[in-house]
Amino acid sequence: MAKVFNSKGKIVRDNPPTKEQARSIKKSRGLGDTIEKITKATGIKSIVEGAARVVNKDCGCNKRKDTLNKMFPYKK
């Protein structure tokens, strides 16, 4: 899914995802899944999980994700 830009900032090639990348992309069931994708993409999730390991506690990410998915589900 890499985009290649020319010197003027226009996309000259937009590679489609590989089969492995396409399998790893899942549809969001609700707000919790979307927030998880954003925190993974920005690196926040790995920082929080690392800090949780240091203090030997669960970060609560999965519980929060499930709660948000139940509170704000996406319509099917």
The side-by-side strand order for the widest beta sheet comes to 1-2
Give the count of helical stretches.
4
Helical fraction equals 40-55%
Number of E-type strands: 2
Q: Shape from CA axes? A: extended
Q: Give the CA-CA distance, first to last residue.
A: 26 Å
Computed structural class: mainly alpha
Q: In angstroms, what is the radius of gyration?
A: 17 Å
Indicate the low-confidence ranges by residue numbers: none
Largest sheet: 2 strands, antiparallel
Query: Roughly what fraction of the amino acids lie in strands?
Result: 5-15%
Output mean pLDDT.
85
The arrangement of helices and strands along the chain is EEHHHH
Nutshell version of this structure?
The protein is mainly alpha-helical and 76 residues long. The chain is 53% helix and 9% strand.
Could you explain the architecture of this structure?
By secondary structure, the chain is mainly alpha-helical. The chain has a domain at 29-76. Helix content is 53%, strand content 9%. It has helices spanning 19-24, 31-42, 44-54, 61-71; strands at residues 3-5, 11-14. The protein has a two-stranded antiparallel ribbon. β1 and β2 (11-14) form a beta hairpin. α2 (31-42) packs across α4.
Q: What's the helix and strand layout?
A:
Layout: E1 3-5, E2 11-14, H1 19-24, H2 31-42, H3 44-54, H4 61-71
Antiparallel strand pairs: 1-2
Helix pairs in contact: 2-4
